[in-house]
Amino acid sequence: MDPLYAEGELLTIHNAFHQGQYQKVIDFDTSSLSAENSLPGRILRLRAQIASGQAEEVLADIEGEDEVPDLAAVKALAQYSIGSTTEAIKEAEYLAMTSSDNMMVQILGGTVLQAAGKGEEALALLTKHSGSLEAVALIVQIHLQQNRTDLALKEVQAARKWAQDSLLVNIAESWVGLRLVCFYQPLTSSAMLLTLLPQGGERYQQAFYEFEEMPVCQAVAEIHLGRLPEAEAALQQAIQRNSDDVEAISNSIVLNVLSAKDTTELVE
Predict the structure, then answer these.
(1) If we measure between CA atoms, which residue out of 186, 159, 162 comes closest to residue 171?
(2) Sequence-ordered list of residues with C-beta below 8 angstroms from that of 9, at least 6 positions apart, any chain
(3) Cα–Cα nearest to 81, from 107, 61, 110, 52
(4) DSSP state of 6
């Protein structure tokens, strides 16, 4: 079972990480954690650093600790983040062969493999998990990227039986809900945003609530609900947090197109 699932001392920074509040995770004092949670807490902080563009610092921090599979997996992710793709893939594939039962190897190795276009290898590794919610979320993401919404929905439904009201499962369920509505009712213009099917509106509203602490995701739900000014406010909040947030910038471009606004500054 995922040690981060139950109520515990890592729950706050675990949720913060998955809500994109990386600085909060980086600033968290891991010295107060129990011996059991010391390494998982450190890994969350290292991953937050990678997500914040500090992969070089992470590699320096963990230098010489490759014998720990969890940290070797962090190394692979950091290498991929700085463009050392060949080394990262080699490391991830080696770990998949030698430490496939390690949760961080499954999650981070699977992330690297999927990012490198090796989706089936990533799935083969991730499906070895033993009750990891993060592995479930990644499996759902991969199925959605493969346009296998049916498999993504099946994965969420299975996880819901044992994960109950987990943040990650709620988020994954919202991803699937958005895809289901978009599949049945493609949105090709801003006018169509206001003519959603009743079921679609409910799914978008559910996603909006789940993404409340995730500005970019919330903005996407707002766009589908036809609330463009609110979407703009959410994206501005995301850009204020991180001016280099590629997802926030790209969604701002989409929003400006839908709103018939100039995109020149954002594109540049």
Answers:
(1) 159
(2) 33, 34, 37
(3) 52
(4) S
Q: Count Cα neighbours of 56 within 13 Å in the Cβ-side half-sphere.
A: 3
Has this prediction a pTM greater than 0.85? no
Neighbours of 205 (CB within 10 A): 15
Helix (H, G, I), strand (E, B) or coil at 195: coil
The amino acid at residue 37 is: N
Residue 77 in contact with residue 47, Cβ under 8 Å? yes
Phi-psi region of 18 (alpha: psi -120 to 50; beta: other; left: phi over 0): alpha
Helix ranges (H only) for the chain are 11-18, 22-27, 35-51, 55-61, 69-81, 85-98, 103-104, 110-115, 119-126, 133-145, 149-163, 167-184, 198-210, 215-224, 228-241, 246-258, 264-267
Q: 168-202: b or e for each residue (b if 16 or more CB lie within 10 Å)?
A: bbbbbbbbbbbbbbeeeeebeeeeebeebeeebee
Distance CA 227, CA 28 (A): 35
Q: Considering all CA atoms of the chain, what is the largest pairwise distance in Å, rounded to the nearest integer?
A: 57
Q: Which are the contacts of 68, defined by CB distance < 8 A and separation ≥ 6?
A: 39
Q: For 146-179, how does the pLDDT look when each residue is reduced to its tens digit (9 = 90+)?
A: 888 888 888 888 888 877 667 777 777 777 776 6
Q: Taking Cα atoms as reference points, which of 146, 222, 208 lies closest to residue 177?
A: 208
Each residue of 52-93: pLDDT tens digit? 889 999 999 999 998 999 999 999 999 999 999 999 999 999
Q: How many CB atoms are closer than 10 A to CB 86?
A: 11
**Secondary structure element (H or E) that encloses residue 164, with its range:** none
Alpha-carbon distance of 21 to 132, in angstroms, equals 21
